[in-house]
Automatic annotation (TrEMBL), chain A:
The keyword Transcription does not apply. This is Methyl-accepting transducer domain-containing protein. Keywords: Transducer. Residues 13-54 are annotated as: Disordered. Residues 142-240 form the Methyl-accepting transducer domain. Residues 16-25 have a biased composition (Pro residues).
From TrEMBL, chain B:
Residues 3-120 form the Response regulatory domain. InterPro entries: Bact_response_regulator, CheY-like_superfamily, Sig_transdc_resp-reg_receiver. This is Response regulator. The keyword Phosphoprotein applies. The modification 4-aspartylphosphate is found at residue 53. Pfam families: Response_reg (PF00072).
Length: 385, 123
C-alpha cells in the first residue's frame, strides 16, 4: 500500500484526488496491471482550426462502450484507493506514535521509580551507615557515662558529707568529754583553794616567819591559775562548740544543698539529653520507615501504569484490523473497476462477502461480537488448564 | 532467582511485563518473536515459566508452544498465553498444544502476579 501511495504521489496525484483520466478517456488504473506503464503525455488544449484545415477526428475510445455514469463510478472507486492509502498512513502513524509514547511513558515512569528507589536506598544506607550508627552509639555512651559519673559523684559527695558530719560529731563528743574533765579540774581547783585557805589558817596558828606562808600562797596561786585555765578552756570549748554547730555544720549543710541542687540540675540535663537523643533516634527510625513506605507506595501505581500501558497493544491490534479491512475494500474496488474497464470478469466474491470474511481475521472476541452486532460473551480473563 | 521468559512482538508489552515481574523479584528473558524465543532456549536459556503472546508475525504463540513441547528442556515448563484473544476455540487450541493457562489482555498486574506466583513460587 505504501508503494502504491508513493507511486501516486510521484505521478503528481494529490492525496485524496482522483487520478487523471488518460486522453483515450480511460482512467488510469491503480491496480498492478498498470503500475509500471509509462505516464501518457498530456493532451494540448484544442485551438480554433483555420477554414482550410480538415479538423482532426480522434479515434474512437476503446472505452466508448462504458456508460458515462459507470465511468464516474469507476473514478470514484479508484479515488477511494488513494483515500484508503491516506487513512492507512494515519493509522500507521497512530500506532507508531502511541507505541513510542507508551514506551516513553513507561520508560520515564521506570526512571522515576529508579531515582526514588535510589533515594530510598541512599537515605536508608545513610541513616544506617556505620559512621552514623557509631556516632549515635558514642553519644549514647557519653550520656550514659556522664550519668554514671554524676551518680558516682553524688555518692562520693554524700559519703564525704557523712564523714564530715561523723567527724564533727566526734569532735563534739570530745568536746563534751573535755567539759567533763573541766568539771573535775574545777573540783581540783576548789579543793586546792580550800587547801590553801586551810594552810593559811594553820600557818597563822604557828606564828609568823615560819616560811610556810609562801607555800600557802603558792597553793592559792595554783588554785587561782587552775581556775583561770579551766575557765579559759571552758570558754574556748564553748566557742569551738558554737563554731561547729553554727558555722561548720551550717556551711556544710548549705554546701550540701547547693551541691544537691547542682547535681539535680546536671541529672536533669543529662536526662533531657538522653531524652532528646531517644527522640532523635525515633525521628531517624521514623524517617527511614517513612521513606521506605513512600518508596513502597510507588510500586502499586507503577504496576497499575504498567498494566494500563497494555491499552496500546489492544488498540494497535484493533487499528490493524481496521487497516486490513480498508485494504480489502480498496483492493475489491480496484479489481471491480478493472473488470468494468477491461470488460473482464468481476471479482469472485461480492464486497459483502469480502467484508464478512473480515470476521475470521479478527484477533479479539469483542471485535467479532461488535461485527455481528452482539455483545461480547463473558469469558474468564484468566483460565488455568 | 526464578526466571520468566516473555515473548511478545509489542515493545510496550515487553517493557511493562518486564517491569511488573522484575519488581516482583523475577528474572526476565525477553523475546520479540517466537523464533527469537526458540533461539534463546536453544542457546541455553532455562526459564521457569514462559508467557507468550498469541498473535505474532511469523510464528504465532500456539506454534511456539508446539515447538517448545518438542524440546526436552521445555517439555514440562509452564507456558501461559497472554493475548487480546478471548475466543474459547482458540483457548482449546492452545490447551491442546500444551499451554498451561490463558490470560486475556489487558490484565491487572496483581492478577498476573498471582498466576505467576502460583506457577513459580518464590520469585
Amino acid at each position: 500500500m505504501f508503494a502504491l501511495l508513493t507511486r501516486l504521489l510521484r505521478r503528481g496525484h494529490a492525496p485524496g484526488v482522483p487520478p487523471a483520466i488518460p486522453p483515450d478517456g480511460a482512467p488510469e488504473l491503480l491496480g498492478e496491471a498498470h503500475a509500471d506503464e509509462p505516464v501518457p503525455a498530456p493532451v494540448p488544449a484544442p485551438q480554433t482550426a483555420p477554414d482550410n484545415v480538415v479538423p482532426f477526428s480522434p479515434p474512437e475510445s476503446r472505452y466508448h462502450r462504458i456508460h458515462p455514469q459507470t465511468m464516474a463510478l469507476v473514478e470514484e472507486m479508484q479515488s477511494y484507493a488513494g483515500f484508503v492509502e491516506i487513512m492507512q498512513a494515519h493509522l500507521t502513524n497512530v500506532c507508531g506514535e502511541t507505541q513510542a509514547a507508551a514506551e516513553d511513558i513507561l520508560g520515564q515512569a521506570l526512571n522515576i521509580e529508579g531515582s526514588v528507589s535510589g533515594l530510598v536506598r541512599h537515605v536508608g544506607d545513610t541513616m544506617q551507615s556505620d559512621r552514623l550508627v557509631d556516632a549515635s552509639d558514642a553519644m549514647h555512651l557519653s550520656v550514659e557515662t556522664g550519668r554514671a559519673m554524676i551518680a558516682e559523684l553524688i555518692r562520693q559527695h554524700a559519703e564525704t558529707q557523712t564523714e564530715i558530719r561523723h567527724s564533727l560529731d566526734t569532735v563534739r563528743a570530745l568536746s563534751n568529754r573535755m567539759r567533763s574533765h573541766l568539771g573535775e579540774i574545777e573540783d581540783v581547783r576548789r579543793y586546792t583553794d580550800l587547801l590553801a585557805i586551810n594552810a593559811r589558817i594553820r600557818i597563822a596558828g604557828l606564828g609568823k616567819n615560819t616560811g610556810l606562808e609562801v607555800i600557802a600562797e603558792e597553793i592559792r596561786a595554783l588554785a587561782t591559775q587552775t581556775g583561770r585555765l579551766a575557765s579559759d578552756l571552758n570558754h574556748e570549748l564553748t566557742e569551738m562548740d558554737l563554731m561547729i554547730s553554727e558555722d561548720l555544720i551550717a556551711k556544710v549543710s548549705s554546701q550540701q544543698r547547693t551541691d544537691d541542687a547542682r547535681t539535680e540540675d546536671l541529672q536533669r540535663s543529662f536526662a533531657k539529653l538522653a531524652e532528646h537523643m531517644n527522640t532523635l533516634n525515633q525521628f531517624q527510625a521514623d524517617l527511614i520507615r517513612e521513606v521506605q513506605r513512600r518508596g513502597e507506595d510507588m510500586r502499586e501505581p507503577l504496576n497499575t501504569l504498567c498494566g494500563s500501558i497494555q491499552f496500546q497493544d489492544v488498540a494497535r491490534q484493533q487499528l490493524e484490523q481496521v487497516s486490513r479491512a480498508l485494504s480489502m475494500i480498496s483492493d475489491h474496488f480496484v479489481a471491480l473497476s478493472s473488470a468494468i474497464i477491461h470488460d473482464g470478469a468481476p471479482p469472485d466474491s461480492s464486497i459483502a462477502t469480502c467484508l464478512s470474511s473480515i470476521l475470521g481475521s479478527y484477533v479479539m472476541e469483542q471485535q467479532r461480537a461488535a461485527h455481528r452486532g452482539e455483545s461480547a460473551a463473558t469469558a474468564p480473563k484468566i483460565e488455568l488448564f | 532467582m526464578k526466571t520468566v521468559m516473555l515473548v511478545d512482538d509489542s515493545p510496550p508489552i515487553l517493557m511493562s511485563m518486564e517491569a511488573i515481574l522484575g519488581r516482583a523479584g523475577y528474572g526476565v528473558i525477553k523475546a520479540s518473536s517466537g523464533e527469537e524465543a526458540l533461539h534463546k532456549l536453544q542457546g541455553g536459556a532455562r526459564p521457569n515459566l514462559v508467557i507468550t503472546d498469541l498473535n505474532m508475525a511469523a510464528m504465532n504463540g500456539i506454534d511456539l508452544i508446539r515447538a517448545m513441547r518438542q524440546m526436552a528442556v521445555t517439555r514440562f515448563t509452564p507456558i501461559l498465553m497472554l493475548t487480546t484473544e478471548s475466543a474459547m476455540d482458540r483457548r482449546q487450541e492452545a490447551r491442546s498444544a500444551g499451554a498451561t493457562g490463558w490470560i486475556v489482555k489487558p490484565v491487572q498486574p496483581a492478577d498476573l502476579l498471582a498466576v505467576v506466583r502460583q506457577m513459580v513460587p518464590g520469585g
